[in-house]
């Protein structure tokens, strides 16, 4: 199977390593920086293309897009017009309205969007607990994503804000695990730390309450400054039981209870290490999508829904009020 890879920054290079470790994959790569193309092609024994147009002219079976966000819509549409199954890192586009346009043009096409938590064993087990009705009536969900340090200021200035860049992972996994839709949000936040947050109207730490269509309440916590490490968890509280994904021996929390030694391992420090298994399973799933043996496990429509939730939270943060999902859609 011959796969093309567009974009060889941090995540693209990581995907190159993962793809070339999968059996039967022949990889062709390209990046806007020719030196990056040469470096990755040499390191992983991949073919090199001059640019995306050159890559799409090759005899490919599928395309992986790991380029900058602003390039996602154009690259997705170019790949589907070439008749190729597409995997694209989140988000579909910078904003939800533009992502909706991509969705309309991708009707009937095979596209998988990269929300890796859908492939993490703990999150999958949490979903199975909900779907198996072992928790009873679900009443509270707590989703946490805390980064140990913020990305570079240049990245933050162009990211669209913490809800669009970071929290969308929480929004997507809440929908995936619960099987329910968000109907209303209320978000707040603070802009402590690097001046870029205040300068761009962003926040470095946020909290959001999401109300699902069945009345379940979800609390989403995010921060760019979590000194102990990379903390990603999902708690599901029901009338019969409670389960947690991410509660392992590398959880970046420190108990101050006398005699308690959990967690005893070194804290998770980076997302690619924490989700290495999920990334491998995600790209393995894409090869199955390309082979026609499974449907896309995360569609453009799924990704667009997470983006609308991010839009609602951004509006709520800015205007200090609850926001209904119908409101942001109608305003677009």
What can you tell me about this protein's structure?
By secondary structure, this protein is an alpha/beta fold. The protein folds into two domains: 2-116 and 280-298, Rossmann fold (3-Layer(aba) Sandwich), CATH 3.40.50; 118-271 and 306-331, Dihydrodipicolinate Reductase, domain 2. 40% of the residues lie in helices and 21% in strands. The chain contains 13 helices and 13 strands. It has helices at 10-21, 34-44, 52-56, 72-81, 96-105, 121-131, 153-158, 162-178, 195-199, 271-274, 276-291, 300-319, 325-331; strands at residues 2-6, 26-30, 47-48, 62-65, 86-89, 111-114, 138-146, 182-190, 205-212, 217-223, 231-238, 242-245, 323-324. It has a seven-stranded mixed sheet with strand order 12-11-7-10-9-8-13. The chain has a six-stranded parallel sheet with strand order 3-2-1-4-5-6, sandwiched between helices. The longest helix has 20 residues, at 300-319. It is globular, with a radius of gyration of 20 Å. The chain starts with a strand and ends with a helix.
């Amino acid at each position: 199977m011959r796969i093309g890879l567009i974009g060889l920054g941090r995540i693209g290079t990581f995907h190159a390593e993962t793809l070339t470790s999968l059996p039967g994959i022949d990889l062709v790569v390209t990046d806007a920086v020719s030196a990056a193309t040469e470096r990755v092609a040499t390191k992983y024994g991949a073919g090199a293309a001059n640019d995306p147009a050159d890559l799409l002219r090759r005899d490919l079976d599928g395309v992986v897009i790991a380029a900058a966000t602003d390039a996602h819509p154009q690259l997705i549409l170019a790949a589907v017009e070439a008749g190729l199954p597409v995997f694209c890192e989140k988000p579909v586009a910078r904003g939800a309205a533009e992502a909706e346009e991509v969705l309309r043009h991708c009707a009937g096409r095979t596209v998988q969007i990269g929300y890796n938590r859908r492939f993490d064993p703990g999150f999958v087990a949490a979903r199975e607990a909900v779907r198996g009705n072992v928790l009873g009536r679900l009443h509270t969900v707590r989703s946490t994503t805390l980064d140990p340090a913020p990305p570079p200021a240049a990245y933050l200035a162009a990211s669209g804000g913490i809800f669009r860049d970071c929290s969308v992972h929480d929004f997507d996994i809440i929908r995936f695990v619960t099987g329910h839709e968000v109907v209303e949000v209320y978000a707040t936040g603070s802009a402590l730390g690097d001046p870029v947050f205040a300068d761009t109207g962003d926040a470095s730490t946020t909290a959001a309450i999401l109300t699902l269509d069945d009345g379940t309440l979800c609390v989403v916590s995010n921060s760019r400054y979590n000194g102990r490490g990379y903390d990603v968890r999902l708690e599901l509280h029901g009338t019969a039981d409670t389960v947690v994904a991410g509660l392992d021996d590398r959880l970046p929390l420190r108990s101050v209870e006398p005699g308690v030694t959990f967690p005893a391992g070194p804290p998770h420090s980076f997302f690619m290490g924490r989700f290495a298994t999920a990334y491998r399973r995600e790209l393995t799933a894409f090869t199955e999508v390309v082979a026609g043996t499974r449907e896309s496990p995360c569609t453009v429509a799924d990704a667009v829904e997470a983006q609308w939730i991010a839009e609602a939270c951004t509006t709520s943060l800015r205007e200090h009020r609850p926001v209904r999902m119908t409101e942001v859609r109608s305003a677009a």
